[in-house]
Amino acid sequence: MQRVPVIEARELTKTFGDFTAVDAISFEVAPGESFGLLGPNGAGKSTTMRMIGGTSLRTSGSLRVLGLDPEEHGPEVRASLGVVPQQDALDEELRARDNLIVYGRYFGLPLSYLGPKADELLEFAQLTEKANAKVGALSGGMKRRLTIARGLVNEPRILLLDEPTTGLDPQARHILWDRLFRLKEQGVTLVLTTHFMDEAEQLCDRLVVIDKGRIVAEGSPQELIRQYATREVVEVRFGSARNAEMEGVLRSITERIEVLPDRILLYDDAGESLLDEINRRGLNPLTSLVRRSSLEDVFLRLTGRSLID
Amino acid sequence: MTEVSFTGLDHAALARRTRRWGWLQYAGYRQAAEKPFFWTAFVTALGNPVLYLVAMGLGLGSIVDADVEGVRYLWFVAPGLLVATVVSTGAQFGTWPIFAGFKWQRFYYSAHAAPIEPWQLPLGEGVAISVRLLVQAALFWLVAWAFGAWPSASSLWIVPIAMLAAMAMFAPLMAYAATLEEEGLQFTFVQRLVVMPMFLFAGTLFPLASMPIYLQWIGWLSPMWHGTQLARVASYGLAVPGWLLAVHIVFLVACVVGGLWVAAHTFTRRLVR
Amino acid sequence: MTSGDVMAPIRERLGRRSGVWRGLYAGNARAVVERGFRVIRTQNWAVIATGFFEPVFYLLAMGVGMGALVGSVPGPDGRPISYAMYIAPALLATSAMNGAIYDSVNNTFFKLRYSKLYEGMLATSLGPLDVALGEIFMALFRGLLYAMGFLAVIGLMGLATSWWALAMIPVALLIALGFASLGFAVTSFMKSFQQLELVPLVLLPMFLLSATLFPITVYPEPLQWVIMALPLWHGVELMRQLSVGFFDGATVVHVGYFLVMSVIGIIAASVRLRKLFLR
Fold first, then answer.
1. What is the reported pLDDT for C1?
2. Contact state of A136 with B182 under an 8 Å Cβ cutoff
3. How far is B52 from chain C (nearest CA, A)?
4. Are B201 and B271 in contact (CB under 8 A)?
């Protein structure tokens, strides 16, 4: 019905003392869209998420969520939000089903609604058998699913997911992606942070890459790959000692090269033919690999390769 | 990227050294881990004696009508207060910090991943805490000396006596704490039903004999009472028959040795399975 | 999943509110209280029961043991009373203080930093004021239970001589409210567990020196004025007066002290509320 953005951030800034966690970022999220905040640890993703919910107070800039300022109208804004925080923050003193019911009560929902809703959500999260289990007895994946179920108890219009699959095993991750995709099909706006590229490619219509509190790139996953990488990447290894000396030779074959300590990356739209060329010249790499380029290449290119702690 | 250097360490020699001295290495590590808490601990160790001696020795003492056990109240209560303070530290360190080592901070697991053996860990804990107990007891003795609470130089014996009594409380609690898998209510019950009564019926502020006989047995089971009695003998020469003196000492030593022995087993059972 | 908008009436109600509190208060502290009772229901009753033991043990040991050494002490009206009668009201006041501080400082800090309970609550349409009010109510409820239990013991041991002793229960709640609201404000400044260790450094001296175990006349006069500035002294004296049903001008001062302290505490806690919950 409307294309008014559900979230609108202008020059949003948050500082903790001398440290600027979020540095004047601006973005919009359209209704029904699936929007990703991508970035290394400490880039400011979680802080941004918490400002959207009004539980972190911004230093400057403006923020509108469903047309309201979350700082002034916190309870009202959060009535339409589902929040899945990075740490589960489940109520360890309550059982699984009670977690859902009590959480619903925080929204002011009646018990007559919450009883059947809790059962429905437990089924959605594949936790029906664990309804009366203590939270402490659940596995990491179960806790995560329960947290997501909890975030849906108020039938939110926007679901905020802060690193939803960090620490999950592959099966649990795929179950989760499936559930999130279904929510998206039902018209829920998803806002998620992640540092997993495959996750962003799977779930996001559009994303921004954040580094040191600033937006460094914006677009759909495909656009970003096209803009900051090539269609394919060839990875070759010559051994730690020879990698550097091979650089010059390889530069004569293709233009975009990145030399890493353990391997060399060659960006090219036709990977296989490039590798054929390398072999034809008798360069004999120890190992070689041709793959599609991914958001990971974009991400590392934009945020640098050094370790971030 | 930098390289990790391999300089040819003698692993066999390292293992031999750890096999013998691992408990001491671990004690050193535990001491270092307590560093952030040093100032709070120091202020408490200095402030507690002042506070207790003012409140109990002087304040409460001023409304006590007559001499207790033949001496003035300050002399009577000072040995009890010193022992009570040091033993509470022992009790405190025997519960949550041990549990945390298995469950939250998991430093026993990282120590066990190094060549340190499980039995060395409770021993190392004991050594590490002894240092703290010694400092605490010595500071208390000095403060009480300034209050004129010691009639004799033999009161200095109270320092080792208090350490012994504190270890007698610490070691069995540590052995028990190592068996707990989850942060349940056990410590709450231990605190409320075991430790606290042992404190109240240790004859610290009044002679245990003034309690009804059917409650006195609580004191007899309390390391704190045995320590307090020994401390009074050392300070003002409380008249205690020789056999009872022996009972006090044997009880405390048995608690320490037995506690450490059981702890070695409970630690091993927890870490090696 | 249903698409009927269950949140519509709630959003409408929240939207009608106005004023500075609308970002902090959703008028739903009841949900936090409900949560508290659900937790109590699943809790082990033995824990709650043994909670009574501590002050009772204390009263037994001190009353009987010290009582044998001390004899009698002048009561609020000047007439001598037994030592057990003297300390029983003081121990009730102290336990109200300790319980309130434990709930508002240690428990709050843990739920804020460790279990992240409040983070979960504040992700919903609750505001920080709902959480604070609900938690203060639960703290007072626990205080009420313990005060009733302790008063029953006082009654059974014959340590109260007036029906005014029944008023010790609401007074215990007033003492708890004063300390709990200040405790909340203090917790908002805390950053690490080391700082939590400072709390006993304040409470223990206050307990030992506030004329709980011996009369204030023991002190030289200038020191008496210092003790009389401490909140616990007023709580202890008020409790003592209630236990024998004797009142004078000081009664008004004691009650006034805690009323003022509660008002200041609640204002301070409200001012620090954002700092406590929203960062």
1. 41
2. yes
3. 8
4. no
- CA–CA gap between residue A159 and residue A78 (Å, rounded): 10
Query: Strands C72-74 and C80-82: what pairing?
Result: antiparallel
Q: Which of A130-139, C7-16, C234-243 has the highest mean pLDDT?
A: C234-243
Both tokens of B178, joined, read 């190592």
What is the predicted pLDDT for the residue at A1? 45
State the average pLDDT for chain A: 87
pLDDT of residue C4: 56
Residue A38 pairs in a beta bridge with A194, A209
The rounded distance, in Å, linking the Cα atoms of C167 and C255 is 12
Give how far C183 is from chain A: nearest CA, Å.
22
Give the residue carrying structure tokens 């994946």.
A141
pLDDT in tens, B118-127: 888 899 999 9
Say whether B179 sits in a helix, a strand or coil. Answer: coil
C-alpha span between B200 and C102 (Å, rounded): 22
Helix axes A140-151, A96-106, angle to 10 degrees: 30
Which residue in chain A has the smallest CA separation from B2?
A: A261
Q: Is the pLDDT reported for residue A136 higher than 90?
A: no
Contacts of C194 in chain B (CB under 8 A): 36-37, 40
pTM of full prediction above 0.90: no
The Cβ of residue C247 has, within 10 Å, a number of other Cβ atoms equal to 15
Residues of chain B neighbouring A261 (CB-CB closer than 8 A): 1
What span, in angstroms and rounded, lies between the C-alpha atoms of B245 and C6? Answer: 76
Calpha distance B47→C260 (Å, rounded): 31
Which residues of chain B are within 8 Å of residue C61 when distances are taken between CB atoms? 200-201, 211
Q: What count of CB pairs under 8 Å joins A to B? A: 3
Enumerate the β-bridge partners of residue A217. A209
Residue of C nearest to B60 (CA): C214
At A309 the pLDDT is 43
What digits encode the pLDDT tens for the residues C198-224?
A: 888 889 999 999 999 999 999 999 999
Q: Of A79, A90, A124, which has the smallest distance from its Cβ to C125's Cβ?
A: A79
Count of A–C CB contacts within 8 Å? 126
Residue of C nearest to A87 (CA): C116
pLDDT of residue C235: 96
Residues 171-190 of B with CB under 8 A from A: 182
Phi, psi of B68 (to 5 degrees): -110, 130
Computed over every residue of chain C, the mean pLDDT equals 88
